Amino acid sequence: MLEVYFVANVYVGGKRKRGRRIWLILIIIIAIIAAFLGFMLYRYNQFINNPVAASSSVTYTVSYDNGLYFIRVLNDNRKIMIVKVEDGTTFPESYITLSSENLDKVTNDFLELFDLNSNFNYYFYLNDEVANEFISKLGGSTLKGIDGFFDALKNSEIRFWQVFSLEGYVDIVKNYYRSTNLDEEGLYALIDGFSKYSITNYDKLTVPLLLNEPIQINIANQTIERKYADVEAFERVKEIVE
After folding, report:
1. pTM (2 decimals)?
2. C or N: which end of the chain has fewer Cβ atoms within 10 Å?
3. CATH architecture of the domain with residue range 57-240
4. What is the pLDDT of residues 188-223, one digit of tens each?
């Protein structure tokens, strides 16, 4: 009887130990899940409250085909304005030329020309391949090129879990143009603005050229071509843009 009792006691003790191990494993799993969800919530709040999204105004310069697109995201007024200028356009009164050769410089030149302030500036190049890849990843548009890019931004919205995929969107742009300063915070602010704010598209804010063909200027033995902006049209657009 003593031997039987001893064996039974060992069995019960082993069962209790296994039960404690199961509970310990469950507690660890729950702690890991809670930590992961907490980190996701922390990152999401970071994007929602990041300095770019909370700033008064952000300017994005996009070079596409032969055009320069200046996107003004006005968070205070909940507006987006897209200004289009043909690449290489010279403004006669200031003799400032907006050229895609240096997007950092052209962004500052644009702000100077239009007497605008901007808390943050971003710039990047797009071609059809990059734009269409971006559109495919964002979804929400059947259009292609720059119009599809804007349409996809307008019809997109950052979900809770999507903040972790923003780096992939930025990489699409960086793989084409390494010198871009676009980052996850800037991209979030761009998508968030397009999905929520009223938008004035570039068809209403295009600065036309004075002439259909460039003007040829002869200097010494050189012939220089200039594309001059229509000053009156520029002034009208300037009055609208904030």
Report:
1. 0.85
2. N
3. 3-Layer(aba) Sandwich (3.40)
4. 999 999 999 999 999 999 999 998 877 777 777 787
